[in-house]
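Please, structure for the following, as C-alpha cells.
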Amino acid sequence: MKTIAMINQKGGVGKTTSTVNLGAALAKRGLRTLLVDFDPQGNLTTHLGYSTVSERETVSDALDALLSGRDYEKCIKNMILHHAEGMDLIPANLDLSGMEVRLQSTMACEKKLTTLLKCVRDNYDVCLIDCQPSLSVLPLNALTASDYAIIPVQTNVLAVQGMVDLLKTVHAVKEELNDNLDVAGILFTLAEEQTVQTQSVISMVTMSYQDDYPIFDTVIPKVVKAGEAAASGHSLLKYAPGATVTQRYINLADELIYKLDIHEKETA
C-alpha cells in the first residue's frame, strides 16, 4: 500500500476536495483505495455523505484503543465505511481534537497512525490521508505514516508563502522519523487559469521549486461544481462526470499512478 498525505498548513487550499476526487479517480482506475480523515473538522467524512456525530466509531476511537491497550486492530477494521463509488473511508469527527491533546503527552506520539494503518495495508493499493491545516502532532503522524506527500497550493501569493515552512517540516520528518518519505508533487488548486495572478504564481513556484520537488502537470481549476459535489455526498466523478474539473482529477490520478508506479508495483 502506497500511503500519501494530502498536506498544507494553510486551510482552504483544496486538500479535502482533492483527496475525495483523486481517491474516486484512483478507484475508477481499479485501485483498492482507502481514504483517511485525519482532521478533527471531519470535512472528508461529511463530503462523502456520512455523519460526524459522536456515536459513529472514528479514527479517534482506534487511537484511544491503541493508547489504552485494547484491540485497536479490530476497532480500525470495524469502522471502515464502504462508499458507493468504490473507495473506503476511515472517518473522523471532533473527538480527534481531544485525542490530539492526549497524543502530545504520549511516547513516540508521531507514530501512532503508522501503527493503525499497518492493520489494513495488505487490503489496499493506495491510501490518501486528508490532514488538518496545521503542522501539529496530527499532520506529523500523517507524514510519518506516509510514503509520499502531495502539497496542494492555491494559486495566490499568500497561499504560497507558507510552503517554505511546510517543506522544512517534510524534510525534518524524513530526517528524524520516516526516511521513506518523499514529495510526490506540488499540486496547483483553485486556479482561475485565465488570470495574470494564477499564471504568475505557477511560474514563480515552478521556477523556485522544480529542481528540488516534482510539480504536477495537472492544474485543478476553481469551480462551483466542486462545492455542489461535496453537498451531494459524492465526488465530481459521480456528480459531474463530464465536467472539465472532473477530467483534471482523472488526469491527476493517471499522473500519480505513472509517477509512483502504483499499478505496476501494487498489483503485480
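The chain is about 50% helix and 20% strand. The radius of gyration is 17 Å.
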